[in-house]
Design goal:
The protein is α+β, with helices and mostly antiparallel strands. It is 38% helix and 26% strand. The termini are far apart.
Length: 384
């Protein structure tokens, strides 16, 4: 009985094994055409070697799209954020689309492929040593063309010119390239001189600044490291300040101060209203200059023209013609006394005083015309 039971159990096990061998295998996953293409392309591929022959130059087309710009006026730092697009051809990564299900392009992580190693030059210490944020996927076409897009956010030193503040336009340079050895043949060339200017228009609206133009030119500069140059492209960005708010805070008070200063020339010599008007103008101009010290960097180069206007107007107010008008009156009185003693005629002394007053009025009109001309020239230089 025991032997028969064991024999039956052994027979059932053998039957189960035979059925298991006859069952079809189950596939965990099916490989796609992109998987097969990636495996074939990267087989024996070395990302450290250039994509062309050693005697050829690798051409890399560079396009830059600016999304946001900002300027730190106190520290003279220009911040630019956007996308950097680079295109090049790698002849080692070509295929026939018909061999891979009609697949003409697909994406590969950038760390699998050759990198042009393009970076920024003359950046701040905060971003020094860093290139571009994130690891991007590169779109590879069947012809071997590579399309790479990197997110960038760089801070660059920029010399500020506040002479026409708040209508100022700043010129900041951003250099993009690569360090090359002077003893080796040129192996990399950046092409970006014939780019569409529309690609430089910021998409994000900045309430304070706007990019009006960008000039692209070749750049070459010897580095501190002996035997190396930095070659690439220099982007000259022209950034203009938006001045809508300053029309009410700067322009309107400046026009009022000019009118108050010029009005004092038309008041009668010796009038109390003239002294009062000049005192009020001088006080308001001091407050106006204090406003400039709050909104302008203390170490800014070139004093703004609007500040010079306020300063000159304050000098006119505190050194008005009233002072030398009084001196003329004293002189006329002395002449009147001498004349009275010599000629014993009070009427002639009054005539002399009247002549001095007329001379004072004439000089005031001359100064009025001179200051109108000066303010007109300053306004033309300021608004152009």
């Amino acid at each position: 009985m025991g032997c028969g039971y064991r024999f039956t159990l052994l027979a059932l096990c053998l039957v189960g094994l035979c059925v298991a061998d006859d069952a079809p295998p189950v596939k965990a996953s099916a490989a796609t055409w992109a998987d097969k293409l990636k495996k074939d392309l990267l087989l024996n591929y070395d990302r450290n070697l250039r994509p062309t022959q050693y005697y050829n130059v690798t051409n890399v087309e560079v396009n830059m799209e600016i999304r946001h710009v900002d300027i730190d006026e106190d520290n003279s730092i220009f911040t630019v954020s956007g996308w950097l697009k680079m295109n090049w051809q790698d002849l080692r990564l070509k295929w026939e689309p018909s061999d891979y299900g009609g697949l003409r392009s697909f994406y590969i992580p950038s760390y699998y492929l050759w990198d042009p190693e393009v970076n920024m030059h003359s950046i701040t210490l905060e971003t020094a040593g860093s290139r571009f944020a994130g690891i991007s996927d590169v779109r590879v076409e069947s012809s071997g063309m590579h399309h790479s897009t990197h997110r960038m956010s760089q801070k660059i030193f920029c010399e500020m010119n506040f002479q026409r503040w708040p209508f100022d336009t700043q010129h900041c340079n951003m250099v993009l390239g690569k360090s090359v050895s002077m003893h080796e043949d040129r192996t990399l060339k950046l092409n970006g001189l014939e780019q569409d200017r529309k690609q430089f228009r910021p998409i994000t609206d900045n309430p304070a600044w706007e990019v009006t133009d960008i000039l692209v030119e070749s750049y070459e500069d010897p580095m501190e490291e002996e035997g190396h140059n930095f070659e690439g492209l220099q982007y000259g960005l022209v950034i203009k300040r938006k001045v809508r708010i300053f029309y009410s805070t700067i322009l309107t008070p400046a026009v009022i101060f000019i009118l108050m200063t010029l009005t004092s020339f038309w008041l009668p010599p010796g009038a109390n209203e003239k002294v009062l008007l000049n005192c009020v103008t001088a006080t308001l101009l001091c407050i106006f200059l204090r406003y400039f010290t709050i909104h302008l960097p203390l170490l800014a180069t070139r004093t703004p023209l609007v500040g010079r206007m306020a300063y000159s107007s304050s000098l006119i107010s505190v050194t008005d013609e009233e002072e030398w008008t009084d001196e003329l009156k004293v002189g006329s009185t002395a002449r009147e006394s001498c004349s009275s003693a010599d000629e014993a005629s009070q009427g002639q002394g009054a005539d002399v005083q009247h002549e001095w007053i007329q001379l004072t009025v004439a000089l005031e009109r001359i100064f009025f015309i001179a200051y109108v001309f000066i303010y007109s020239v300053m306004a033309a230089c300021y608004l152009n």
